[in-house]
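Hey, resending since the last one bounced:
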Amino acid sequence: MHIDNASRQYETAAGEQRVSRCYLLRRSYRDQDGKPRNETLANLSALPDHAIGALEKILKGATLVGAQDAFDVERSVPHGNAAAAHVMASKLGFPGLLGPPCPERDIAYALILSRAVRPESKLSTAGWWASGDTTLGTDLGAAGASTDDVYAAMDWLLSRQQDIQRKLAARHLREGGIAMFDLSSSWVEGACCELAAYGYSRDGKRGRKQVEYGLLTCPQGRPVAVEVFAGNTSDPESFKTVITRVRDDFGISQLIMIGDRGMITSTRIADLRKLEGMEWVTALRAPAIAALARDDGPLQMSLFDHQSFAEITHPDYPGERLVCCKNPFLAADRARKREDLLAATEKDLAKIRDAADAGRLAGAGNIGERAGKVISKHKVGKHFIREITDNSFTFRRDQEKITAEAALDGIYVIRTGVTEDVLGPAAVVTAYKNLKYVERDFRITKADDLDLRPIYHYLGNRVRAHILICMLAAYLTWHLRDALAELTYTDQDIPASDDPVSPALRSAQARAKDGAKHNSEKLPVRKYGDLLDHLSTLSRQTINFSGQRIEKLTTPTPVQRRAFELLGAPVPLTLQ
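The structure tokens again:
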């Protein structure tokens, strides 16, 4: 049997071309005389084309099965977030940056990508690779990595730290340029970490041992190097170590270092003066500012009558420039905060006074001990006058001291040895305020994206390797955030300001994006973390079709498609 297409084309009297559809099911046979004959069994013209096509295949010997039976999705694995990180890492030359090809490099590379898209413990990450719940482990050859393999890769990566950071410094720190440095800390779980010690906790974890680490960045905030210290290391000592790294390891002899007032102290400045080509920008502490503002000092409020910053000099700072700034927004915030702390302290002190008056609290020593705890709680004790006897307690605000402190609200003084032909007053202010980028990097590394804290490792080198992985993931995240800014709430058009002291304002484009929750291309915008989650829904599927196994990506959403356009590459099927 076969299907005969007997359709014919004809022209109507009006000259219109038409087709007479005719499909016949016929049987071919030979008659008694051996002559071939055809017998029409049925007229199939009323059937749709796909039905006629299927019948034709059956008559030719093909076996047809239902779509549900022939088509089987064996596995669907999140892929888009890992693919985005891999594409950006490849553009940044990460494999070559880490070192020569070897199994340890592959696992270290997988650890960095995993930290950027799914920050978890090393044990959890290795289990994630092995479970097949991500394409990252299989594609990068890390799916079978054991705990010992992961630790070996961390040790290998740490041995490459100096070379890696030298390459990053060559990319982003130019001779005679600017670098920024700041110190942070993270608390440690357990009691056996050899680097853990009690110190000033920037996480607010009082009574917990911690590890400190200093981050060196370029002026735009790209992480370039990280150094790990014991938890009780002072800021000036860590800065001294970083200067050695810059000059000896990176081979940079001329650089302007930007650091806060706790980092670059007068002692450190004296050390920098002995190093030819090393300059600094930092700020004065509150007592030094108050000294400049005395009646005979050069820091007078009239300096800010017509502008928000002014440059002065003082004999106590020979060969240095002092740029005085007044920020009214900062002044209002400090006044509000001081009043809140004073009110909270008064409320607690009043309870002690009432207890003493009622006879529930007696003895000058006992009353003083209770009052001391309250005073140290909010750190505004200097603004209260207190009188204690064995059976009474009185207090009042020291308004003279409060007024004197309030007069300097919003004022800060930047000190530098850089000459004006290199950095003018406005550029000095901008350079110091750019320390906000280092703070942003710490926020990304510790809380927002990379979840560095708390630290669970015990061995010093494992702690250093863990923080190095987080630093390299922060470097990758910096570039991902920059490339994908169009799809997030990031302001891409920050307006230039004539006043470097005033707070940065969001552009009209950013405010429009905030309100509409869509960008100019009508695509929805998200927080960066939510965008990574959305990219992860772009999955790679393993499909069994009639016995043939194929791998195929799900169709990207408009946002996913645009994300990879911004990254400058199509969505890769595999991470290789």
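The two ends are 52 Å apart (CA to CA).

Sorry for the duplicate.
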